[in-house]
Amino acid sequence: MNSRILLTSTTCAVLALSAPSALARCAQRDLAGEWQFYNSFAEASLGGGWSRCLLAIDRDGTVSGLESCVDFDGGSSNIVTGQLAVAADCVVTGSVTVLDGAVQSTAVIEHATIDTRGATVHGVGRDSGSLPGFSFTMVKK
Q1: Residue 134 lies in a domain
Q2: Averaged over 75-94, what is the pLDDT?
Q3: Which domain does 119 fall in, by range?
Q4: Does pTM top 0.85 for this prediction?
Q5: Distance CA 101, CA 79 (A)
């Protein structure tokens, strides 16, 4: 009898310890693919603006630009590098470095969420350069 109780207790403990991974709603692989990226910001001297980019994210979360980003004022910039990560609770974190002319800055994602289908990401972040915070949306192609 005691051996059955011990076996049952051990089985329940193993199942309980493995349950969080079974309940994970999102995974790093959800970010892999091509994404259309849109961001918007407000800044006192500029009044605000936006940009859009086409980017690729590999299975490890490395970000690369597939074409130049287009800015609200007709300018362009290029993604130099980046790294994004997804937690099991679907929170996305990381950063992307962009070269705008001779100025390089890093956009740090403060908080973002990927939907459980892996089709969209919405979030907010801050820029290491002169721009303040920004909001963004990514749509998987």
Answers
A1: yes
A2: 96
A3: 28-140
A4: no
A5: 12
